[in-house]
Design goal:
With about 230 residues, the chain is mainly alpha-helical. It has helices spanning about 15-30, 40-50, 55-65, 85-105, 110-125, 130-145, 150-170, 180-195, 200-225; strands at about 40, 70, 75-80. The chain has 9 helices and 3 strands. A hairpin with a 4-residue loop joins β2 (about 70) and β3.
Length: about 230
């Protein structure tokens, strides 16, 4: 596969090479520039990124741990294919952990954390997918922040990153109209209202329903994509 028109050089940017390479490869995966299942040359990818193969390999190993990349024993890699089994496993873990943390966080929420959640929610309406997704994750993190341990956050960040490609497949903020963007905002605003009201059991139930709905939508979209004749 040639990546000449899909992956941008990061050579001139004054940030950690591994971080830059990781971010650019993730961008290419999430936008479909590096399609699922298609192999690409690590050497060619390094050339297009304008860096040596060392940060590319480190970035790919990190992305492999997040379920986005499959590394081969040769000097090639491929984007992990979309999988219903994969998304089912991700959401099974989220449903076991996230609603419980959110419910137990309610009595310990502070006005400052709730203001941060509200600010993140507003930013999640951005038309830019990167900003919208970061704000979306920040909103969910604020819901569990009061009781989440360092290990809870590590696990949740891993699950949120793993779910990102699937989430953007269905909820891509670059392809929706304003009415749909408002509906998505309203669903999350409902979670925030429950947290502000101090009702832990209600937040647990609402977040469970929210995640279950998203999982069902993603699975339905994967099945449509896998159907014969699907573009």
């Amino acid at each position: 596969m040639s990546t000449s028109s899909t992956v941008r050089s990061v050579a001139a940017q004054n940030v950690s090479a591994v971080d830059l390479v990781t971010a650019e490869i993730r961008r290419s995966i999430l936008t479909g520039a590096l399609p699922a299942g298609e192999q690409f040359s690590i050497r060619e990818l390094a050339r297009q990124l304008g860096v040596s193969h060392i940060p590319v390999r480190e970035a790919l190993r990190l992305l492999e741990s997040q379920g986005l990349i499959v590394l081969s024993h040769t000097r090639s890699a491929s984007v992990a294919s979309l999988s219903i089994e994969d998304i089912t496993a991700i959401y099974r873990l989220r449903l076991r952990i996230e609603p419980d943390l959110a419910a137990r966080s309610v009595p310990l929420q502070t006005p400052d954390l709730l203001r941060q959640a509200e600010a993140a929610l507003k930013r999640s309406r951005s038309a830019g997918p990167d900003l919208a997704w970061r704000a979306h994750c920040e909103f969910h993190e604020r819901l569990i922040a009061p009781v989440a341990t360092e290990w809870d956050l590590r696990i949740m960040h891993t699950l949120w990153r793993a779910a990102e490609r699937y989430t953007l497949l269905v909820f891509d903020p670059t392809t929706i109209d304003q009415a749909e963007r408002q509906r998505r905002y309203d669903r999350h605003a409902g979670l925030l209202r429950i947290a502000v009201a101090g009702n832990g059991p209600a937040l647990e139930a609402a977040l469970t329903a929210h995640l279950t709905f998203n999982e069902a939508e993603i699975e339905a979209r994967i099945r449509r994509l896998a159907a014969p004749g699907s573009p």
